[in-house]
Amino acid sequence: MISISLCMIVKNEEDVITRCLDSVKDIVDEIIIVDTGSNDSTVEKVKQYGAKVYEFEWVDDFAKARNYSFSKATKDYILWLDADDVMRPDDVEKFKELKSNLDRSVDSVTMKYILGLDENNNATSSLRRNRLVKREKNFIWIGKIHEYLNVYGNIRNCDISVVHMKNKPHTDRNLKIFKKMIEEKVPFSTRDIFYYANELYYNDYKEEASIQYKKFLDTNDGWVEDIKTACSNLSEYYYSIGDKENELKYIFKSFEYDVPRSDFCCRLGYKFLNENNINSAIFWYLSAISNKPSEDNLGLVSHHTYTWLPLLQLCVCYSKINKFEEANIFNEKAAKYVPDHPSVKHNREFLKGKLKELEESNNQN
């Protein structure tokens, strides 16, 4: 059986750190905590788990901090987590099995990273991360912000999930780091341009973000999943300001790089539904539910855009053309994902009457 070092970088995480460590304490053999300047009880709490704690002066560089944490690991493999991450009991059991049976020729294991859960504990969005890596490979983190682990070799995908249970609001911390890089004339990589655009976008500087997204696209050098996200956010921005021409432009631009992603299909379905072009709306919503992402996909996946959302919209579409039996089928399919959704319940009541009328009409004929 392999041995595992858990490596984390933390600062003022007293509200969540015990939740994280409680969830994984039984599957790791060593806990490495790199503290970047806590002034709360974080350090005292992690020491209760036998953690090895190291202080690290924060220099606005996440990669440096993570690489330092990796340098302190001593076990066969390294598992990394953030303080507001949790591994659920079912995934812990899967992890134990993985740990017992992992072929030592594997250099990295990717796991699903669930970024949000709905009220039914269904993932709302997720992506894959290289989560468990062989220590002797000396993989390094790259990037001051939105850092990534530069992994290569024998990579295995698994169905284990880590859940991000964020309890702090989004701040402009990362945006400030990018602004500082600009002031210091630090060259931006293509990836930096993309994430700078994201920080502008999510801090509500959307017009400035649109400029940076276009700059990113013009490099012709970005990761295809980042390109699609840039197109999605540009399309959403132009929709918000009523620029239909550019909204469509960036939806269709995303098609240049890959098959239409489900969120783009839903955008087109919504557009045509609002224009009362029902057949076109049906086409794109059907495309959304048929276009499930690959399990190997490392990019961001919005689960609702290929599950319950297009199914509910198909119910609406078929109701508009008086095909109530078809509408009912799609509403019940949506209910399997979101049984308590208000639209599901409303549709049931509406369709109950319509289906009864249809049955009575058929009986009379």
What does this structure look like?
The chain is α/β, with parallel strands linked by helices and 365 residues long. It has 2 domains: 4-164, Alpha-Beta Complex (Spore Coat Polysaccharide Biosynthesis Protein SpsA, Chain A), CATH 3.90.550.10; 173-316, Serine Threonine Protein Phosphatase 5, Tetratricopeptide repeat (Alpha Horseshoe), CATH 1.25.40.10. It has 14 helices and 11 strands. It has helices at residues 17-24, 42-47, 62-71, 89-101, 173-183, 190-202, 206-218, 224-240, 244-254, 262-274, 278-290, 308-320, 324-335, 342-364, and strands at residues 4-10, 30-35, 52-55, 77-80, 85-86, 108-117, 123-134, 141-142, 148-149, 155-164, 301-302. The strands form 2 sheets. Strands 1, 2, 3, 4, 5, 6, 7, 10 and 11 form a 9-stranded mixed β-sheet that branches. A two-stranded antiparallel sheet has the order 8-9. β2, α2 and β3 (52-55) form a beta-alpha-beta unit. The longest helix has 23 residues, at 342-364. The model has no long low-confidence stretch (mean pLDDT 95).
Mean pLDDT: 95
Name the poorly predicted regions: none
The number of distinct structural domains comes to 2
How large is the count of helical segments?
A: 14
Give the biggest beta sheet: 9 strands, mixed
CATH superfamily of the largest domain: Spore Coat Polysaccharide Biosynthesis Protein SpsA, Chain A
Gross morphology is globular
Class per helix and strand makeup: alpha/beta
Kindly report how far apart the N and C termini lie: 71 Å
CATH architecture name of the largest domain: Alpha-Beta Complex
